[in-house]
Design a protein that fits this description.
It is a single chain. The protein has 195 residues and is of the alpha/beta class. It has helices at residues 20-30, 60-68, 87-95, 106-115, 129-137, 144-159, 173-184, and strands spanning 9-13, 40-41, 56-57, 72-78, 81-86, 100-103, 120-125, 166-169. Bound molecules: guanosine-5'-monophosphate. The site of guanosine-5'-monophosphate has 17 residues, from helix 1, strand 4, strand 5 and helix 4. Guanosine-5'-monophosphate (5GP) is lined by residues 16, 20-21, 39, 43, 74-76, 78, 83-85, 103-105, 107-108.
Length: 195
């Protein structure tokens, strides 16, 4: 989706467990003016999550229809559920000339890159590998084999940082949120004079 305007689409992605959701929640709190896309998902709401605010919660048939009618900019399966970015609200937002933010996992970020090469891809990185390991381990009490598989996956996900335009380190949630908001309105490299 080439936007054809000065408005920029920014995608926040990164390994699971790095805290993307937390950073975006902080962005919403500190900068309520920032427009964040509301994804559709086939997973059930968690306590406190509101339909239309955190996600649009849909069933498999609805999700199939969205794919069939080209209603999604990108979509991916993650942990047994499907997640996707509705294209229409995003298109409308960018058409006004204002920036937009997506928070999605890596497969989706790669699809956005293909469809909109002008999109700015931001990778949220853990301060250290040890920090990510402790966050992933802290999520539950799975058997060691499951934890090991998750760590191998996290290593592969970290290796993807080279595909991104910018790396933001999640050393402090408020700081990372502010840095991200600064990037949303930064001029695209193609518009910087002298480049
Ligand atoms: P959760 O179920 O914890 O809310 O999200 C699981 C994963 O799905 C997170 O990594 C989140 O970034 C990702 N995600 C949320 N919405 C989308 C989306 O629209 N597309 C893709 N590809 N991933 C998404």
């Amino acid at each position: 989706m080439a936007t054809g305007t000065t408005a920029r689409l920014t995608v926040l992605s990164g390994p699971s467990g790095v805290g993307k959701g937390t950073v975006v929640a902080e962005v919403r709190k500190r900068h309520p003016d920032v427009w964040v896309s509301v994804s559709v998902t086939t997973r059930r709401p968690r306590p406190g999550e509101q339909d239309g605010v955190h996600y649009h919660f849909v069933d498999d048939a609805d999700f199939d229809r969205l794919i069939e009618h080209d209603g999604l900019l990108e979509w991916a399966e993650y942990a047994g559920h499907r997640y996707g970015t509705p294209v229409e609200p995003l298109r409308r937002r960018l058409a006004t000339g204002a920036p937009a933010l997506l928070e999605i996992e890596l497969q989706g970020a790669r699809q956005v890159r293909e469809r909109d090469p002008e999109a700015q891809l931001v990778f949220l990185a853990p301060p250290t590998w040890a920090e990510l390991v402790s966050r992933l381990a802290g999520r539950g009490s799975e058997p060691p084999a499951v934890q090991e598989r998750r760590l191998r996956l996290a290593q592969a996900e970290l290796d993807a940082s080279g595909e991104f335009d910018v790396v933001v380190v999640n050393d402090d949630v408020a700081r990372a949120a502010d840095e991200l908001v600064g990037l949303l309105t930064a001029p695209s490299p193609g518009l910087v004079p002298g480049e």
